[in-house]
């Protein structure tokens, strides 16, 4: 006589429960971040993927090592760009102020159709979130959005002018920014833009600017990056090599990750991937925010000096035309003692020891899986206990078990 099919039914039920548990996440959360569109027309849609672990740029710079000392709290970073979406989940909760729209007097800039400014702001100050390994360099900093360009009438990319960049820098200074990020450039040495950079310098504001992406198109000098006092930032890839598109020149100050870097977008949760010196500059701006928060006695010029001399140096003599003073080193920029600053700095705390990059799956996602595992175990117990009792009764009735069936559990997950 064949044994009852209760065990087969129980195994099938367990498989269904496990498949339901591990496939219940939204589809977009199971995908990695998608590249930003290169032919974007109109507004950028919400991200279609999620970075589950720490992105390579965050692993390389390891800003979380200095977060026990400072997260940039108290520092406002001005983003002279396309606006910043203050409702993006990792920027919500009052992190983004109303800002200023210099293209529309009296307008706000805490929305972002094009998405460029939101991506930049995320690299600087995105909050930590247990659903993702991505976070900004200075998650405690505040963001002051300054919109200096809007989409073209045909939905094409925003058109910037040297004059609008100058207006944006001035608005950021007047709005209380201690650090300003300009991920845009022009080849025009415009008096209005130059005057705005001087205006920031005279008010002790750090200005960080992208070097631009035209190294293979003649490698022209770009502004505001080339103006004295500005921290001009180029791009490196994940191997630490100069990105072939990244502008070179004697004006280059530093380099930072700029190939396949991760950040957020407007309109919803998740992340995008982007490439360009536009996305290298905010890593340095975030580092500057950390330095300004931890060393408030330092002037803007001293902050620039500290970022340069604590950078990971290039193999060639510094400054190198393609790498400047080297790759920004967030931990050293905050913690290193410089002899030339003697008498200026307070006693420095030692950074915490280097450890593994936090994995969100070991935090929020891990807790979720643990809870669900307990639920599954309880459900299986309710089925298996009666089954075992029936089997024991069956054995007493000479139900012979003819074979052992091994069930291979298959686990699917994000």
Automatic annotation (TrEMBL):
Membrane topology, from the record: Single-pass membrane protein
GO molecular function, one term: serine-type endopeptidase activity
Coiled-coil segments on the chain, per record: none
Protein name from the UniProt record: Type VII secretion-associated serine protease mycosin
Gene that encodes it: mycP
GO cellular component, one term: plasma membrane
Transmembrane segments: 368-388
UniProt family annotation: Belongs to the peptidase S8 family.
Organism: Amycolatopsis thailandensis
NCBIfam families cross-referenced by the UniProt entry: T7SS_mycosin
